[in-house]
Here is the input.
Amino acid sequence: MASWNSTHLEVLYNVLGWLAFVSWSISFYPQVILNFRRKSVVGLNFDFVLLNLTKHSSYLIYNASLFFSSTVQRQYREKFGLNEMIPVAANDVAFSIHAVLLTVFTLAQIVMYDRGNQKVSKTAAVLVSVAWLAAAVCVFVAIPRHSWFWLVSCFNTIQVVMTVIKYIPQVVLNFRRKSTIGFSIGNILLDFFGGITNYFQMVVQSIDQKSWINFYGNIGKTMISLVSILFDILFMVQHYILYPSSKRTSDNPISLGEESSQVTKEESRSADV
Here is the structure.
């Protein structure tokens, strides 16, 4: 069993992990609050939310299995080394649980509030269906072989793919509207900070263990940090530089209700693209 070589690095590892948990967890609330205040979800891309649910559900299965199951942990060490530290911390499991719950709540808001003509695209529905079909195939393959770590790694792979894909519909929607109204930038700023702290948590573990195996031993955690950081930077560029709300107001002053009406008309034409 691996153990920490430095108490100071262990403390720093835990501090960074829980900072990531708090930041990522809070990042869900600005969008939820914005939806509640507007009583509308116009401007929030539904594909983003649906893909996000698939991503976080898959990540929860991976994190919980590797954190709680001694069998999965044993198979992990058989693959990467008997003295390797398990790359999933308690904050990873806590975040995954919270993320699934808040994403389900956001979906409930989509059902309750004004959606205009926005809907989930056929492309997103197909992607989610393919992801869960692939997961089912992995389950049937793993059961007779008792390849449990391989199985949870399949879910980790699904969440990596969903992480890469999920941001794209919102980026495209912002581009088409030339606006980020309806999409909370507070969510992005907190997500960015969470990605930074999550990545450096892994760095601290690698420094202490004098090994970088945890980066590819848990490629999902590595990718969730890097991909989130890259897309968050893109969203910040869109919000603050390309489509600042103050510039839109001065150039073409329209009310949020009028913009929402324009967005719904546009979405009715492009929802299935």
